[in-house]
C-alpha cells in the first residue's frame, strides 16, 4: 500500500529491552511505587523530595540506557519512509538518541525541568531537589517537566490533527491503560487508517486494531519496518 503519513505511538514496552522498567508488567514501576505519591501534583505538593528522588533515579537510568533495535528501526523508517511522526508516552530520550527527529513527548521528558510558578522550561540537571530555583522567575518551584496524572498531556491538538489524516497508525509497547493515548487507535480507525499493534502481548485495546503482531519489540518492530520499506513504494 502507498502510505504517505504514519503515526506511531510508543509506550514503556519499547524501552523495556533497553533496561528501563515498564509500569504495569509484573514487578513494574507501579508495583514498587504508589503513583499517587510520585506522579500527581498532589503527591508533589505533599512530598517534593520523594518525587524528585523518583525522577532523579529514572533520569540516571535513562541516561545509562541505550536505544535498542526497535528504536533504531523507527529512526530508519523516518529517514527512508514517508512522513512518520512518533508520539511517545515515554519520558526517556531513546528515540532521539536512535536518530528519530519528529518525536512528540505527550507525557513530557525526564531531561526537562518546568517552573510551577511561571511555566518557564529549562534543561534538567541530572538531579533536581525541592525548592529548585527557576532561572527565569527565581521562584523555588522547579519540577520535572513530566505530565502527571490529572494533568493535560502535551501536543494534543497536533496529535489529534495527525490522527485525523494518517494512513497508518501503529502502537508499540503500550498496554492501552491510559487515556487519551489508549483512544488514539479508534480516532485513527475512524479516519480510515490501517491500525497495527506491535506488542509483547495483547493490550487492553487489542480488539480495536486491524492487525496485531506479538513478540519482543526488538524483533517485531525491525521485522515490520523492513517489510514495510521493502514491500511498498513511497514518493
Ligand atoms: N516488547 C514489546 N512490548 C513489551 C515489552 C517488550 N520487550 N515489554 C513489555 N511490553 C509491553 C507490555 O506487554 C505492556 O503492554 O509494553 C506494555 C507496557 O505497558 P505499561 O507498563 O502500562 O506502559 P505504558 O503503556 O507506556 O503506560 C502508559 O502510564 O503510568 C503512565 O505515564 C505513564 O506513560 C505511562 C503511561
Structure, described:
The protein is of the alpha/beta class and about 240 residues long. The protein folds into 2 domains: about 1-20 and about 65-105 and about 150-235, Rossmann fold; about 20-65 and about 110-145, SIR2/SIRT2 'Small Domain', CATH 3.30.1600.10. It is about 35% helix and about 20% strand. It contains 10 helices and 9 strands. It is globular and about 55 Å long. The structure holds adenosine-5-diphosphoribose. Adenosine-5-diphosphoribose binds near residues 89 and 173.
Descriptive keywords:
10 helices, 235 residues, alpha/beta, Rossmann fold, binds adenosine-5-diphosphoribose, SIR2/SIRT2 'Small Domain'
Number of alpha- plus pi-helical segments: 10
Radius of gyration, rounded?
A: 18 Å
Ligands (ions, cofactors included): adenosine-5-diphosphoribose
Residue share in helix: 25-40%
Report the sheet-strand fraction: 15-25%
Quickly describe the structure.
It is built from ten helices and nine strands. The protein has 235 residues and is an alpha/beta fold.
List the helices and strands and how they pair.
Blueprint lengths: L4 E6 L2 H4 L12 H4 L2 H4 L2 H6 L1 H17 L4 H12 L2 E6 L5 H5 L4 E3 L2 E8 L5 E3 L18 E5 L9 H9 L3 E5 L11 H7 L3 E6 L11 E4 L2 H15 L4
Helix pairs in contact: 6-10
Bound molecules: adenosine-5-diphosphoribose.
